[in-house]
Amino acid sequence: MKQGPDKRSGVDHRLAIIAGHLRKVHSMVDEGANCIDIIHQSQAIQQALKKFDQQILAQHLRSCVARDLKSGNPDKVTAELVDVFGRV
């Protein structure tokens, strides 16, 4: 995905949130925090990553996939999407 700064600002913000959650988990582990509290924070990271993936996929579909379909390259699009969803 090659997007300009305007299209990626939401992505950058989401990554900053994820990084903040991850730093929090790291400090919680170092401090010996309650395991359930650590798990809750970890679940927040996982949810944030899912939203990040959804945002990136939406941008990819709107830009890259649309471009490849217009240029007559449906096999590339199909292979790429099968690969991504095969990893889920």
CATH class: Mainly Alpha
CA-based gyration radius: 17 Å
Content-based structural category = mainly alpha
Share in β-strands: under 5%
CATH architecture: Up-down Bundle
Number of helices: 3
Helix/strand order, N-terminal first: HHH
Question: What would you note in describing this structure?
Answer:
The protein is mainly α and 88 residues long. The chain has one domain (5-86): Methane Monooxygenase Hydroxylase, Chain G, domain 1 (Up-down Bundle), CATH 1.20.58. Helices cover 86% and strands 0% of the residues. It contains three helices and no strands. α1 (5-31) packs antiparallel against α2 (35-70). The longest helix has 36 residues, at 35-70. 0% of the residues are buried. The model has no long low-confidence stretch (mean pLDDT 87).
What's the topology here?
Elements: H1 5-31, H2 35-70, H3 74-86
Helix pairs in contact: 1-2
